[in-house]
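Mods, move this if it's the wrong board.
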Amino acid sequence: MNKITTNNYKQFFASPIFGLLILFILTFSSTVSAQDDENGVMLMLKAGYKKSGAVSFFEKLEMLEKEYGVDQRDALNDFISSHPTARERRDRVINLY
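Not the wrong board. Structure tokens:
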């Protein structure tokens, strides 16, 4: 059995495989977020609510993103972000069903 050392960790985090793993996780997380939004709207509709509630929620979240500067993501930060912006999520919800 190999002994785990600090050097092993440094080698792993510096490896291209670690970078690819992170990109896969971030892409997967963003896809899951879109599916979660769609499932949430579907459940709202089945329960008798209008999707305008979800749209309103993302509009409020968008205002908070603007207040804290999260909406000012550059291309790199947008690429590595694990979730779409509130605006993107709101627009997706508007186009559902």
